[in-house]
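Structure ticket #2291
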Amino acid sequence: MTEVSLSAVPKTGLDGLKENWRSDLLSGFLVFLIALPLCLGISMASGFPPSAGIITAIIGGILVSRINGSFITINGPAAGLIVVVLSAAQELGEGDAMAGYRYTLAAIVVASVLQILMGVCKAGRLSSFFPASVVHGMLAAIGIIIMAKQIHVMLGTTPEKGSNLFSTIAQIPHSFLNPNYEIAIIGITGLVILIIWSMLKNPTLKMIPAPIIVVLVGMGLARYFDLEHEHMYLFLPDAHFLPHHEETVGPKFLVAISDNFMSSFYFPDFSKFATLEFWEAVVSICLVGSLESLLSAIAVDKLDPYKRHSNLDRDLTAVGAGNLVAGLIGGLPMIAEIVRSSANVNNGAKTQWANFFHGTFLLLFVVLFPRLIHSIPLAALAALLVYTGYRLASPKSFATVLLIGKEQLFMFVVTIIGVLATDLLIGVAIGIVTKFAIHMLRGVRLNNLFKIHFIIERKDAGTFVVSIVGAAIFSNFMPLKTALANLESGKTVIFQMNNAYMLDHTVMEFLHDFQHNYESHGGKCVFFGLEYHDTYSRHPLAVRRMKRDNMSRRKSDHYGIR
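Resolution: structure written out below.
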C-alpha cells in the first residue's frame, strides 16, 4: 500500500460523495460481486433462508454506512457468526427450522439493543480485554466447524442425522469416497478456482473477484447437469451400485429463493424470551459479533492509506442499530467484515459511500434478478465457505502464533479444543483462564492481574514520559490505553520500562500499534529499559519478563519497537 499525503484525506458526507463517487461506485460494485455469493452461503450455513444474508448486507450498506464511525469498512454477515447463529437456531427451534429462525431473530434484536448500549457506554475498548491468541483460537475453531459442515454440502452428501461435531468430522472421508458426483464436480471445481486465484500475480485478473468466477462456473455446470429438473445422473453408469449414496440430482441442490423479494421478510418470535437457551444465544451473538466487528474495524484502519482511525464506540452503536433493523425483518446479524473491507481498500475506495453503493447494488439485484440467484448451486457456495474456513484455520495461522511464543500456541490450541468440545463462550472462557494461569505461573502478582500502575508526566512542552510499574498484561492495560489515546499528537513520548517486570504479547502489540499510529501523525516514541527483559521467543512482540539479575537495577538505554 503506497503512502499518501495526509492533506489529501477524502472529505466525508455529501462533499465526499461529490469528490469520490467514481472510485467509490466502482469499488462498491466489485465488493457487491464478492458479497452476493458470500451472503447467500453464510445465510444458508447459518440455518437461515438465503435472502436473510442479503437483507443484512443491504441494511449494512444503505443504513449503517450513513451512521457508523469508520471510513472504508464494509458491513454485512460474516462466516465467524455462522456457528453462533446455527447453534441458536437449532437449540431454540428443537427440530423446527422455521421456529428456530424466528426465535433467533428475537435473540438478534435483544443482542442488538445490548450492542447499542455498549456503544453508547463507550465499551468499544473492551475488545482489548480478549488476548490475541484466544481470539485467533476462537476464529480458527470457527473455521474448523465451517469446513466440517460445508465439505459435506460441497460433495452433495448429508451427515447422519443427530451427528455431533466430532461425528460430522469423522464422516468426511466417507463423503469423499461416496460423493454425489455431479454436485462434487461443481463444488471441487469451485474450490480449485479459489486456490488458483489466490496464487495469481496478474493485477488485471486479480481485479475480478474469485467468488463471482466460482458462482458463474457453478451456474454453467449446474445448467450442463440440468439441476433444474430432478433426475438420476449418468456420470457413472454403475453409480447406483455404490452404497449409502445419493444418486439423484435436482433443484434441491440449487438456492431456493422467492421471486418476490418482499416475501423474504420474516418477523421475530419473542415467546422464548424467559428461557436460559434464549439468553445464551443473545450473549453469544452480542459478544462474538461485537468482538469480531471491533477487531475487523481496527484491522481495516491499519490498511487505510489515509491513516484514519475509526470511532469504535460509534461503530459499535451503528452495527447494533443495523442488527436491530435486520433482526426485526428477517436478517442475519452483521459485523464490520474484514475480507470485503480489505477488497474495498484494494479497489480504491475512499469513503463509506462505497459501502452504501455495495448495499444498493445488492438491493437492485435481488429485486430485478431473483431467478439468477435460484440458478446458483449450493455446492459452489459451500466451496466458498470451505475456503473461508480454511483461511481461518490454516497451518499458517498455527505457525504465526508459534512464532510469537510456545505459550501463545498453547492458549491458541486450548481455545480451539475448548470451542470444539463445548461452545464458543465456554471455549473463549477456557482460553482466558489459561492465559491467567500462565501469567501467574510466570510470577504476575494477584494485585496486578486487573490493576496497572503507571504515571504519565509532562517533561517539557514537547515531551511526555510514561512510566510503567509492575506488570502490564491484557486484563489490566485498558486504563493505559485510554490515557495514551488522550495525549496530544506531534510530541515525543518516552516509555520508561525499567520498572515493568512483565509485558505480555497483547500489550506489546498495542505499544507497537500505538507507536506506528502516533509517529504517522508527526510524533515520536522512544522506549527505555526493554533490553533488560528476557523474551520468550525471537518475535519482536513476544512476552517480556525482566531478567532476574536486573529486577533491582534501574538502567535505561534507547530501544525502539519496530
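Closing remark: Residues 1-7, 239-245, 554-562 have pLDDT under 50 and may be disordered.
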